[in-house]
Every structure is written in structure tokens, then in C-alpha cells.
Amino acid sequence: MRAETNENEVFLFGSAGPKPTFAGSKVSNLFNETAKKAQRERKKAKKTTASPVCREKGVSLQTKPHTMTRKDFEIMAPVGSRESLAAAIKAGADSIYFGIENLNMRAHSASTFTIDDLKEMAQTCAAHGIKSYLTVNTIIYGEDLPLMRTIIDAAKEADISAVIASDVAVMMYCRQIGQEVHLSTQLNISNIEALKFYAQFADVVVLARELNMTQVADIHRQIEEQRICGPGGELIRIEMFCHGALCMAVSGKCYLSLDNTGRSANRGACMQICRRGYIVKDRETGTELEIDNKYIMSPKDLKTVRFIDRMMEAGVRVFKIEGRARGPEYVATVVGCYQEAIQSVLDGTFTEEKKDGWDARLARVFNRGFWDGYYQGQTLGEWTTNYGSAATEKKVYVGKAIKYFSKLGVGEFQIEAADMSVGDRLLVTGPTTGALFMDLEEVRYDLKPVETVGKGMRVSFKVPEKIRPNDKLYKLVKSAKEA
User: How many CB atoms neighbour CB 407 within 10 A?
Assistant: First the structure.
């Protein structure tokens, strides 16, 4: 509790403090009375359980041994398009998160959904048994409040599973109308006291990406010991990022884009200024200093698949994948690898051979190089050495799907751009198809098998599952560094 005064007013801050009060000559008495009240409440709080109180279910989690199963863990996939949504569902995601309009942190780079899409998104997820999370996690200004309320009302009406929030205005309004809330990484929750405060709003909390697993495990232990629960009456679940891009700033609170371009990263309009190459120059002499890497502000991507077991042991229950601005092939690959990794840990088959296999698959899709983040105790960041993706494969547009012959399991395609040959690795993407990978074993033109097909030709070949008209066809080729 603290008091800040000027000539005629006193502002009292604290969990038990009143609203700002104008006290005049009674400042001293008001402060003393409020301080005594707060002291009594603090003593009372020490004798009671954490608030809100956990709902009892016969036997508590602390006294009943529990064997962890796949249902205890959640893989949350990023969705910036309908193709990515389908890819996430097919790859085995347990939940997806997405944004609409302008009040989400990917409004500039992955804003393909509108408020009119909410019901469809929620229904699609519910039909496949997965949860839908809507991000409303930017800084909220006064003029944004009407839009924020409109979005939250629509989310509630559409049966969106939860809203991911960082602004207290969003949390308060969600609580007012009964919409479940999860907390965003933007809050930088790094200790148990902060988590206890925010537990009044949310059942799931993202911890800061700057924590290590020892710190995470300690927070998890205290959640269980103190029975810290969310509004739903269940113990708070810890969510953490497990894969994808990292920001140069603490918990993503960067002002570089705003300073350079007038577009705020904290308003979903990051211009990725940190990803550019830079030189270091002496302002007085003009001398350019030699540095070993010009990408001095561009972190490598986070990858935790090799130590996902440590995260599970530390108490992480929701594994969040970054990448709403990335393609469906990225979503399908990353979700698939982490799904397999978590299951392998549970099965006791989490081997070095499997880890190497996941590493190779993850390297094929968009990445800026990989590191462990801060999770294993590293205190300094690692920086990428190139601009853009360091993926070992790149996709080249070939053409589009025309028809699917279900009895034959064959797809017909119009070749519009690059050629392709038997032996090529292919990718088909679409709003319902998601991301479908295959090797081209045979291709036919005019019903006859051929080795290579090119622009203008209508061809057919076997596909592993149903494709739809206008699905896009790509071939996957080795990147320049790998060729």
C-alpha cells in the first residue's frame, strides 16, 4: 500500500484500496484508516486459501495420484487463414487461436478473418472437438472500447471457447458478460504473486517467455500448494510458447516499429524492423565497426521439441505455437511434430532418433534458425544470420486442382506455372484440404504416364486423400543453401 499526494487529493493503490478519493484536510486520517483496513485484510488472507477458491471434486489434485495422459496436455495452433485452420485440425491440434479486426497482435500480418466469421470458426472447431480462442490482446485506447465490446459480445454469442487478453478493460468486460478469458504473453507474468492477482480473471495463464524451466516449475508447485484457481474453480493451467518466432523485446513489448514507421507493434502493426540488417557506425568519426552478424536484432526461432519432456515435468499444460502469419504447411508440420513428441514422452519412447527426425521436419518449413530460448537457462539471445526464412525447403507454385475422382483416389490439376516431374515432393493446400504432402510417383497426361509435365497441361495423379477444386498445388524443392 502506498499513498501519493498533492495539495488536495490522495490516490490510494492496492488490492484493497478504494477508488481515488479527494480528501482535503482529512488526508492523514483517511490514509491511516485505509492502511489499517488493508493490514487486517492481509492478515485475513494469510489464513485463507487463494481466491477464487477451488471447486472441490471429492479428492483434490494434491492427494490423489494422477497418471498423466494425452488429454492433460493441449497443443494450441496458430490460425491466420482457413487453410491453416484445416491444417491444424487434421494435424491433431487441441485448440486454435486467431484474431479479427484491428484489436489483435497480428492485425497487420494475418488479418483474414472478420467478426462475421466468428460463428463459423467456433462451429468448425466444435464439430472437430477442439477449442477456439480469439485474441483481443493489443493495447486498448478509449476510442477502442466500443469495438472491443462489440467483438467480445460477438465472441460470446458465437460460443468462442475463450478470449486471449492483455488489457484489464478486456478482462473486466469478459467477466461482466461471462466470457472465459486466457491471459496473453503481453502481460509478462513472471512470478506467483502476479499470477495470483490475475487468477481472478483467467483459468489459463501464459508465463513470460524469459523464464527458465526451474522458475516455471516453482510457479507450478506454488499453484498446487496454494490451490490458486481461476474463475472456473479449477487450478490455474500454465501455458507457454513452445515453437515459433521470438520478439527482440521482453514479452513482445517492442517500440522499434512505432519509432521508425509510426506503426505500433503493440497495436498489431509491427513492421518487422528488427529483422533487417544493420551496420554499427561511430557517429563522431563515421567509422563503421566490423561485426560478425548484421542481423543484430533478429532472434532465431524458438524450438523446444528436444526438451518438451522438461516442459511437461515443469507443469506446462498448454503448448502454444507461434505463427499466425505463416502458411498451412508450417502449421501442419509443427503441430504434427509436437503432437508426436508429447505422445512419445507419455509412451516412454522419447528417443534421440525421434528428436533428430522432428528436427529435420521442422527445418523444412519457415524458420529463422532455431534455439532453445531462455527456457534452459540461457541468458543471452541468439540471432539469425539471414533475412527471411532459413527453411531447408521452399514451395514453388505449380497449378490448381480441377476435380477429384473419389473411386480412383485421383486428382486432376491444371498446370499454370512451374513444371514438375516424377519423384518430386508435392504440397496441396486449401480451405478444407488444409496441407496435404505427397511424393509424385506417377503422373498422367492424356491418360498416358509421363515423366515431366509443364505449363498449360491438364494432368492427373493419385492423391492420399480428397482434394477440392481450386486447391493450390506446389512442389517442394531444396532451398539454395541445401541444393
Answer: 5
